[in-house]
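Could you help me review a protein record that somebody else here produced? What it holds is a sequence and that sequence's fold in token form. I need someone to confirm that the token line plausibly describes how this chain folds. Take the sequence as given and treat only the tokens as open to question. This is what I was given:
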Amino acid sequence: LSPGAKMGCFTFIKVMMILFNLAIFLSGGTLLGVGIWVKVDGESFLNIFGALSSSVLQVVNVSYLLIVIGSILLVIGFLGCYGAQKESKCLLMMFFSVVLIIFIAEIAAAVVALVYTSLAETLLTGLVTPLLKEKYGVDKSFTHIWNVTMTEVHCCGLNNYTDFNNSYWYETQGSYPKQCFGVLPPLAHPHLCGCLLQGCFKQILEEIRTNAGVAGGVAAGIAALEIAAMAVSMYLYCRLDDK
């Protein structure tokens, strides 16, 4: 290619890099704002987006998850957008490094999720079960989130109803949450343990397996975007030496 054509190609890719990362930056800001909203007023958030309550995000603390993801996207968007605009090799290399680290972490997480499902369940149990025992029935937003989740997914607790044993709710109410009981036969006692539903983790895991094709397609799309972003940043980084 002629020098003019090379410069035109460089300028086009630079502009695309700026616009792409500006979109990432704005998306990160949006997610960060939503995460703060959920943290401050999670009940009203669920009232608006109740249809999403069967999502796996309801198992963990969705507010912190959105805040973390939003913050990461803000950093990535800033590094990519400002680095391309200023033609800074340092910022472009930082952008490449951050995306590469996230890409490797996603691959590692996918391998752990596929190969060590029991380990993932153990980790979630260690994090979520203590929260159920301490905050369910105490924290209004936390309780509402779990009530909606258990109602929509038709489940009880993370592993099963025993997650509520020795909990604040069980100690004060003397029973498990009403969402834990399935459809009872006529004249059955309402607190028969045989009628208690399975844990939410198993139910959501089954939903994920049922929709594995969609989840895999989304993951592949994200991975492709990350590879493309790394390739473009390296192209700009290397082309700066020729200017």
